[in-house]
Design goal:
This protein has 197 residues and is mostly helical. 76% of the residues lie in helices and 0% in strands. This is TetR family transcriptional regulator.
């Protein structure tokens, strides 16, 4: 099959195909046959590189989260800019939120792949907000871990549930700008930065 001479290129094609497949169908509905066909890769090669379907899903989601972290570093000192970058990232990469929603539906409260690494990553994000609160850059309105969760939810929900955004907020550019400003205002209030905005 194409790409067997370049393992890294093959892995990249598999990751891209798997991301699209899992975002569209979740773990249970995804098919390794379709991923292999789209990636122009051998099915056995997918299992050899990534393990079973659940392991592949975990690796795909982990990579998507790493990409988000690299593209949108935490910036507690400027909630407006942080919210803007999160909104823009999710609009450009809606598959990440779909993967997270599928993960929640299919794993529920059970332990998920890469859970310990992800907890550590989220603790590091919360620590940035905690430091900003301790240094007085942000007011300690809410616990830092709650801030990370709430700001992430505010910035991502519009892309995660576009039908609700369309029905509640509207579809025009003016509607999008109004919603973005509302999310910025909420983030400033949650971080105690409203007075300095």
């Amino acid at each position: 099959m194409a790409g067997t001479r370049d393992p890294e290129a093959t892995k990249a094609r598999i990751f891209a195909a798997a991301t699209a497949e899992f975002a569209a169908h979740g773990i249970a509905g995804a098919r390794i046959d379709r991923i292999a066909r789209e990636a122009k890769a051998n099915k056995q090669l997918i299992y050899a590189y990534f393990g079973d379907k659940a392991q592949l899903f975990g690796q795909v989601l982990q990579q998507a989260l790493v990409s988000l972290a690299a593209a949108v570093p935490v910036d507690p000192e400027d909630p407006d800019a942080y919210v803007d970058r999160l909104i823009e990232y999710h609009a450009a990469h809606p598959e990440l939120l779909r993967l997270l929603l599928w993960e929640g539906l299919e794993y529920g409260q059970g332990e998920i792949p890469f859970e310990e690494q992800r907890k550590e990553h989220y603790r590091a994000k919360a620590a940035r907000f905690e430091t900003a609160q301790r240094e007085g850059t942000l007011k300690p309105v809410l616990p830092p871990q709650d801030l990370v969760f709430i700001i992430s939810a505010l910035a991502g929900w519009s892309s995660a549930a576009p039908q609700l955004r369309r029905m509640l907020v509207g579809e025009t550019e003016a509607d999008d700008m109004r919603l973005r400003e509302s999310i910025r205002t909420a983030a400033r209030r949650l971080t105690g930065r409203e007075e300095s905005a």
